Amino acid sequence: MDQTLPDAGERRPGPRRQRATRRRGERTRQEILDATLRVIARDGVRRVTHRAVAQEAGVNLSLTTYYFVDLSDMICRAFERFVDIGYPEVERRWEEVFGHLEALDPAWRDSETSRIRVRDHVIDRMVDDIGGKLATQPDWIAAKQHFFFEALLDPRLAALAEDYRRRLVAPFERLCRILGSADPELDAELLFANFVRFEHEALSDSGNGRLDREWVRRALARMLDWILRHG
Prior knowledge:
Radius of gyration: 24 Å
CATH class of the largest domain: Mainly Alpha
């Protein structure tokens, strides 16, 4: 059998060039996912098309089909990137709250004044969290709302969204346990549902991106008072 050596111009790229190519490919893939997130935040999941994303990312249309099986795959991968980028900050903010609460003298539960002080500290952090995100990351909140709504219709996205929702609810449950809730799982779900509602109402046309801080404070105070007084 005749064997011929490859021409010098046909040599395979070396390891360094292969790594550089992979890095460029990963950057392009992430740029496409980031563009997908921007389209979702601005226009909703149903407006995501290969053409819209390619135009937003400034890449060739063919690349959106090269890196992803279909639109559903691209949307699901965009949601995973959304979680990977955003959740560490959620964890950091909650750990600051828990660090403060767990450093307190356990006797705080025996004093009405101390319970009110703890309640107000938690409320301050929650209100600042929502208000801060509305001021600096409204697109991020909008994307989350769009993803959760679309998850009701897309089974592939539903599993990812439910996993993320559970991760978001978990610190509320931890908070409820610290506050002495008799049913921390239920109270956490109720708190989280209202938290999402506050974000949604602030983003709505009537809210115009502004948070009614006083109303939110009153609502949270009522919920937390119930937990603190009745367990």
